[in-house]
Amino acid sequence: xxxxxxxxxxxxxxxxxxxxxxxxxxxxxxxxxxxxxxxxxxxxxxxxxxxxxxxxxxxxxxxxxxxxxxxxxxxxxxxxxxxxxxxxxxxxxxxxxxxxxxxxxxxxxxxxxxxxxxxxxxxxxxxxxxxxxxxxxxxxxxxxxxxxxxxxxxxxxxxxxxxxxxxxxxxxxxxxxxxxxxxxxxxxxxxxxxxxxxxxxxxxxxxxxxxxxxxxxxxxxxxxxxxxxxxxxxxxxxxxxxxxxxxxxx
Length: 250
Ligand code: PXP
Fold this sequence. Notes:
The chain has a single domain, classed as Aldolase class I (TIM Barrel). Helices cover 47% and strands 17% of the residues. The protein contains 11 helices and 8 strands. It has helices spanning 9-16, 25-34, 53-62, 75-84, 111-123, 136-145, 155-159, 163-182, 198-202, 214-223, 225-241, and strands spanning 3-7, 39-43, 66-71, 88-91, 127-132, 149-153, 186-190, 207-212. Strands 1-2-3-4-5-6-7-8 form an 8-stranded parallel β-barrel, surrounded by 8 helices. Strand 4, helix 5 and strand 5 form a beta-alpha-beta unit. Helix 2 (25-34) packs parallel to helix 3 (53-62), helix 5 (111-123) crosses helix 6 (136-145) and helix 10 crosses helix 11 (225-241). The mean pLDDT is 96. Bound molecules: pyridoxine-5'-phosphate.
């Protein structure tokens, strides 16, 4: 059964717009968890453009569910993660000039770096997830690296402009999920998911968790944080309790 894990980076983005103290992402943790999120996801970027080290330190102390730390696979950030001890580290590609994470991690092309980071994190007791595109070569490389989980990048599915294209991308995600599970990986997904496109992804068999940030924070501006999280959590639950209703209708 798929669950929702809310990414709260954008609360920090708003705070950093004034370089002040509000809104504080730490204060969002209890609200988001009470409203239906199984944990908290934050991305500690190398440039610290939104989430700061202090945020992760405090969130680590107050979160009741799991803490998923999105991060680059560089030595400096891996050192920091080992100090911060999230429950899960999700390794993502990171470029300074990008607006948000663009595309999945190239585990095949950066095998040495990703596998070293994975080993160090796992040795420290942190579960490692790799944020990858839903393609067989990346899935196979993720297993060889020793990752315990993958998160499939859903951006191409979310950006599809026609129903036919969306269906094609959904099928790609379904096949990737089957392959990843068959080789023992836990499967998650995220990026670009919103209240309109989440149902078919949440209905994929074996999908464990959806990481969603932007659409929830956008809705929270109008209806409040707790209701925005609860609406999304209910959609995810609906899709998992009646998957046959949503599997073939993106
Ligand atoms: N998963 C990963 C690995 C991400 O980098 C992001 C964006 O920070 C998300 C999920 C959430 O994407 P969105 O904000 O579009 O819901």
